[in-house]
Amino acid sequence: MDLGLAGRVALITGACGGIGFATAQALAAEGVRLVLSDLDIGDLEKEVPALGVDAICQKADVTKQRDVDALVEAGRRKFGAIDIVVHTAGVTGAKGHPLEMSDEDYEEAWQIDFFSAVRVARATFPAMREKGWGRFVCITSENAVQPYWEEATYNTAKAALAAFVKNLSYQEAAHGILCNTVAPAFIETPMTDGMMKQRAEEKGTSFENAIETFLNEERPGIVQKRRGKPEEVAAVIALLVSERASFVNGANVRVDGGSVQAVQN
Predict the structure, then answer these.
(1) Distance CA 32, CA 7 (A)
(2) What's the CATH code, domain 9-188+228-252?
(3) Under DSSP, is residue 203 helix (H, G, I), strand (E, B) or coil?
């Protein structure tokens, strides 16, 4: 299926991550030129030639508006304008009883998982409005609608992110900018690798058994009994930022294997 994206320019934050890089690969296959960013881009720069499209990498801390502005300016200088934003940067943050989390714990998740999206939107929307076309996709999580008690810092930030993007969608569609979120659950990424390694250590078991027991005990809705793959999330993102999804706005699309056991988003 031709997604009608050839020649577009996409900014991807968190591009070193599993979902971020898989999205870069998916969009590159559609002929999209890329502006890729993360806190450490050493490994990313080595992978870029294999993408087969014109691309630049730039280090940026999305908790700082000046870094975000510099990133967008680098993309503008290279390609003229950014058409698509896929914001994947995020952290799981501190875990524990909600009232035992410190102000700093909540602030870390807030700045990285939520407020970074505000900064990126501020920097990219003016040019999209001028062109009358744009796509803005943020990665939320199943946690935004199905929170787990020990992940309050992450839950709160991701729920705020979902609400923020929904708010944007009401106004920005008039300018040709469609705003949506994608909510993955238990994807094969360094983030869930870390979670499962910790679980394996705590339970004195293997990595594979940690995944199996986690699925059985904590995520019964995932009846496929496996983690999702980054490319399965990237395929949905590629569709959302394309011409094929020109009437999808303000949506939260789950890529969670059925983990969220509810009808509503």
Answers:
(1) 5
(2) 3.40.50.720
(3) helix
Angle at 144 between CA 228 and CA 127, to 5 degrees: 90
Q: Which residue has the tokens 């900064």?
A: 119
One-letter amino acid of 28: A
To the nearest whole percent, how much of the chain has pLDDT over 70? 99
d(CA 153, CA 111): 11
pLDDT digits over 213-251, tens only? 999 999 999 999 999 999 999 999 999 999 999 999 999
- Asked whether 131 and 83 are in contact (CB, 8 A), the reply is yes
Q: Which residues contact 107 (CB under 8 A, 6 or more apart)?
A: none
Give the model's pLDDT for residue 122: 98
Residue 250 near residue 162, CB atoms below 8 Å: no
Residue 261 pLDDT class (50, 70, 90 cuts) = confident
In angstroms, the CA 181 to CA 83 distance is 17
Contact 261, 219 (CB under 8 A): no
Q: Look up residue 175 and give its two tokens.
A: 């300018």
Q: Where are the domains of the chain?
A: 9-188+228-252
Q: For residue 265, what pLDDT is reported?
A: 63
pLDDT band per the 50, 70, 90 thresholds, residue 191: confident
* Residue 132, amino acid: G
Exposed/middle/buried for residue 53 (C-beta within 10 Å: 0-12, 13-18, 19+): middle
